[in-house]
Request: fold
Amino acid sequence: MDIIQTQPAGAAASPGGTGTTTGTISADFETFLRLLTTQMQNQDPLNPMESTEFASQLAEFSGVEQQVRTNDLLTGLQRGLATLGMGQLGGWIGMEARAEMPVNFDGQTVMLAGAPNVLADRMELIVRNERGDIVQEIPIPLSDEMFSWDGTGADGSAVLPGLYSFAVRNWSGEGMLEERGAMVYGTVEEAALVGGEVWLTMEDGVSIPSGDVLGLRGSGS
Reply:
């Protein structure tokens, strides 16, 4: 008499990589139980099922039942971890993050900061568009204090709305010492888990991985 085989645990992987779903295993479990009961009820009295065969099918039955319970437990654990993770994500919302990141400019004031070189006697802000072209070169204070940029250059011209990145150049006389990315301050409006990593969306719609954030503070501090 053939033994009914249930679906192996790795036969149907879910998007989250947890293997066979609980619903599929539960269906296998119920089907196995019905088939085994029917098999016992309709066996030939003159040729009953061998005890070893019966024990083997009971072991199979027990394994399926245990798999159902294990998957129920894992599902509950995953839900608990997801709830915990969402609570942690909520802590990012409303915070002001500092990172080297682009800005989706549309007329708003952008808060920036640069790092002065100890040998520098002046600094300037370099603004690049999405293609990487320099669109503005603006003198800024020789300091690591925050300063604002409203899209207006030293000559009074304003950049068009779009995605811009920022860098700070340190100069000594006529020689450029170095160019570093400028720190941009932006308020976090959304935090989400993407592929197991926390991504933050700023108020201007730009998204960055949380690992790029070098500083946090309360908005308006």
Observations:
- Residues 51-90 form the longest helix (40 residues).
